[in-house]
Inverse folding.
């Protein structure tokens, strides 16, 4: 009886020590997570707060005002740069998502000669430094424009079109990676069942394949849009005179002086990005 009681007490003590260790681990994990979230999101919170300050240099919170948003709407150069950036991001996202989705389906479903080489080339824009990609695109456009001028006599210049082509070139890889990840666990028996029931290849794709991989497509599109929206290096090398993009315009204004107008436009772009993410989550839940 005494031995049984001592064993029960020992088990109780062991369980208590294990629970204390678990509590400490939970506490440390919660502290680590809190510090990481503060590290990631505190600068964003500061940016938003300083877009409402009355300090003309945006360095102190001396008051609360919406005047900087009013001045932002009067800055035609900055607004024009923002619209150009949104245009480039939207067009490049749509085209890179279509091309990337088709490439992901081809790479995941089919075996063809040179598939390994194509697979390796798809990852190059992701792994190589962005400055190398920018220089390569600049050299490509210069070489191509020279050939076109020699053949047709028409002189081409850098413009929004070259920026869109450049953004498509490096966004495709990100879309392919995300969509291929959604295709990894895809059950092809669903497509076979649809075809057995009389659906052709086009109907099978739109009614079976596309809805199932849509979350991956949306994820790839959002990633491509975000990358295009805040890209500076490639945009700087491939844009032309008279064409301004928001990252380049912000950089040029920051070199002169930092004003809360920069914080205001950044806050609006953040709001747009958060809205797009919220819409994508809503669409995915509705489809489920």
């Amino acid at each position: 009886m005494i031995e049984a009681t001592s064993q029960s007490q020992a088990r109780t003590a062991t369980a208590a020590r294990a629970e204390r260790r678990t509590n400490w681990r939970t506490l440390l994990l919660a502290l680590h997570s809190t510090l990481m979230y503060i590290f990631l999101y505190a600068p964003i919170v500061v940016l938003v707060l300083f877009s409402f300050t009355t300090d003309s240099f945006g360095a102190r919170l001396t008051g609360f005002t919406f005047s900087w948003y009013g001045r932002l709407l009067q800055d035609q150069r900055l607004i024009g740069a923002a619209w150009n950036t949104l245009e480039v991001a939207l067009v490049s996202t749509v085209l890179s998502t279509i091309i990337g989705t088709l490439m992901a389906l081809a790479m995941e479903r089919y075996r063809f000669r040179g598939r390994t080489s194509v697979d390796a080339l798809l990852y190059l824009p992701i792994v190589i430094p962005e400055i190398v990609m920018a220089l390569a695109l600049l050299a490509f456009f210069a070489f191509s424009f020279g050939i076109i001028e020699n053949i047709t006599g028409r002189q081409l210049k850098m413009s929004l079109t070259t920026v869109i082509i450049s953004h498509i070139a490096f966004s495709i890889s990100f879309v392919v990676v995300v969509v291929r990840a959604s295709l990894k666990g895809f059950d092809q028996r669903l497509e076979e069942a649809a075809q057995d029931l009389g659906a052709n290849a086009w109907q099978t794709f739109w009614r079976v394949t596309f809805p199932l991989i849509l979350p991956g497509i949306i994820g790839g599109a959002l990633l491509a849009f975000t990358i295009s929206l805040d890209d500076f290096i490639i945009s700087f090398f491939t844009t032309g005179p008279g064409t301004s993009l928001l990252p380049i315009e912000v950089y040029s204004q920051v070199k002169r002086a930092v004003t809360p107008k920069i914080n205001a436009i950044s806050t609006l772009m953040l709001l747009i990005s958060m809205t797009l993410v919220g819409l994508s989550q809503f669409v995915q839940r509705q489809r489920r």
